[in-house]
């Protein structure tokens, strides 16, 4: 596959052995379109090979904010600056509307996404609060108290039951 800029890469199946499979001498081949167990964790988007591939241009934009001239160009004309990158419409909207959690879902690396938050003057706790639909202070307090409770947050179905119940 070519990224449009002469960089060629291929997505090959990943071999992810479980401890039990290793003991039996069996491994599991996971293809890029196959669901992973961690896909069922609500509000969690693991930056794996699928998201890295999907988010290549998005992360390229986010990393460009490391350079002051790029920050100035983005500040003076965000739309024109974003036109330099081959973002999907969904990625572009997520950037423009600062949909922090959705940026991760559409391939953004959390550390690169934080560069955009810093550009906006947000702290990590501020971005985390926005992702969690709570204030920065509430997010910081939740982290000091050990984070989000596991009960009710293991599977997407638990969130669906909570919202429908």
TrEMBL record:
The organism's place on the tree of life at top rank: Bacteria
InterPro entries assigned to the protein according to its UniProt record, in alphabetical order: LigA_sf (IPR036622), PCA_LigA (IPR014159), Xdiol_dOase_LigA (IPR011986)
Domain Extradiol ring-cleavage dioxygenase LigAB LigA subunit: 58-144
Protein name: Extradiol ring-cleavage dioxygenase LigAB LigA subunit domain-containing protein
């Amino acid at each position: 596959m070519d990224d449009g800029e002469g960089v060629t890469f291929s997505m090959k199946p990943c071999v992810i052995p479980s401890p039990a499979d290793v003991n039996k001498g069996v491994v599991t081949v996971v293809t890029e379109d196959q669901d992973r167990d961690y896909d069922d964790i609500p509000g969690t988007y693991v930056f794996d090979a699928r998201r890295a591939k999907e988010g290549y241009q998005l992360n390229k934009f986010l990393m460009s904010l490391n350079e002051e001239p790029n920050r100035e160009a983005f500040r003076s004309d965000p739309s024109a600056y974003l036109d330099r990158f081959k973002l999907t419409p969904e990625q572009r909207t997520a950037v423009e509307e600062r949909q922090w959690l959705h940026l991760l879902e559409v391939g953004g690396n959390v550390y690169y996404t934080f560069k955009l938050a810093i550009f906006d003057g947000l702290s990590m706790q501020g971005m985390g609060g926005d992702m969690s639909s709570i204030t920065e202070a509430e997010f910081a307090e939740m982290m000091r108290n050990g984070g989000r409770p596991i009960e009710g947050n293991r599977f997407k179905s638990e969130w669906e039951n909570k919202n429908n119940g």
